[in-house]
Amino acid sequence: MSERTLFGRLRAGLRKTRQALQERLEAIFSRPRVDANTLEALEEALILADVGVRATARVLQEATARLRAKTLQGGEDLRQCVMATLRDILEAATPPPATDPLPRPWVLMLVGVNGVGKTTTLGKLAYQYRQAGERPLLVAADTFRAAAIEQAVIWAERAGVEVVKGQPGGDAAAVAFDALQAACARHLDRVLIDTAGRLHTKAHLMQELAKMRRVIARALPGAPHEVWLVLDATTGQNGLVQAQQFHEQLGLTGLVLTKLDGTAKGGIVVHIAEQLRLPIRYLGVGEGLDDLRPFDAQAFAEALLEYEPIPERGSTR
Ligand SMILES: Nc1nc2c(ncn2[C@@H]2O[C@H](COP(=O)(O)OP(=O)(O)O)[C@@H](O)[C@H]2O)c(=O)[nH]1
Ligand SMILES: [Mg+2]
Questions:
Q1: pLDDT of amino acid 238
Q2: Could you tell me which of 277, 232, 226 has the C-alpha nearest to residue 253?
């Protein structure tokens, strides 16, 4: 897939956020002159997009400094200034480069509360790895719900990858253990482990996930190599509390933010980057196999603030 298409999907996924921002910002960005008053409207627009108080303050500080230094004149300068500052904040969440060569099998545990998009994300990831010529194994270890196992199997079929599944009500950690042994024996490249998002209680869920993590480490020293938390971008700031709890219990190594296509408050990504300082690995921008984009600070800032002509009334876009 070309870079253009990759960028296009991210852009399409951020349409709601971009349009909401634009309704407020275009009047500012199209001005020949910017003054202190216009920065107030900028502040409001960023807060309403869930960019967060601290990130917004940083943008305003930068813009004010440049206004004083007279390096900020027209609205287009302001757009570039906002874009660059958001990009700098987002850089803090840019993942480090992957180690080379990757351990084999490379083991990922995906965790998060129910409905955030774990299984969907694993299906999309499995597909990407397979497209890259690798042999991933999808592990359906959400044994709490029978439907969850079936859903993971369907995603594995869709992605064209192998799957190991547990029995409903079975021991999820044991499923992961068996899957790892199979993957080692068959020299598979990646083991992608789906997990439950709900058990009888939250404490019980955390215990089970921590147990699975220990069992995986026993099966393969050094594994899991990654533990990523999936957060639903449409639930806004709730994600921050979830992230803290999961991080304390499991030691997260990254985040995946899903459903950016379903919110006008995609600025939450900036807020999360600024607050959590965990690498953002991927963004989910739709329900299809291809709707998972690696996180890129520059591309994200551009997709958020790029000018987009407002469609005419009655147009079917
Ligand atoms: N629009 C949209 N929907 C998504 C995205 N990721 C997941 N979903 C949907 O969210 C719902 C829950 O996803 P699922 O993978 O079952 O969540 P899980 O409970 O965490 O495993 C499903 O209907 C998915 O199609 C995304 O990036 N965009
Ligand atoms: Mg699931």
A1: 84
A2: 226
Q: Return the bridge partners of 14, or none.
A: none
SS3 per-residue string spanning 89-104 = HHHCCCCCCCCCCCCC
Taking alpha carbons only, the member of 9, 93, 89 closest to residue 51 is 89
Residues with Cβ within 6 A of ligand 1? 112, 114-120, 151, 197, 230, 258-259, 261-262, 284-287, 291
pTM for the whole thing? 0.93
DSSP letter at 201? Answer: S
Out of 9, 116, 120, 255, mutate this one to test ligand 1's pocket (max ligand atoms within 8 Å of CB): namely: 120
Nearest ligand 1 atom to the CA of 284 is 27
pLDDT at 306: 84
Burial of 317: CB neighbours in 10 Å, binned 0-12, 13-18, 19+: exposed
Contact assessment for residue 224 and residue 213, using Cβ atoms and an 8 Å cutoff: yes
Evaluate whether 212 touches 195 at the Cβ level (below 8 Å): yes
Q: Where are the beta strands (DSSP E) in the chain?
A: 106-111, 136-140, 162-165, 190-194, 226-232, 254-258, 280-284, 292-294
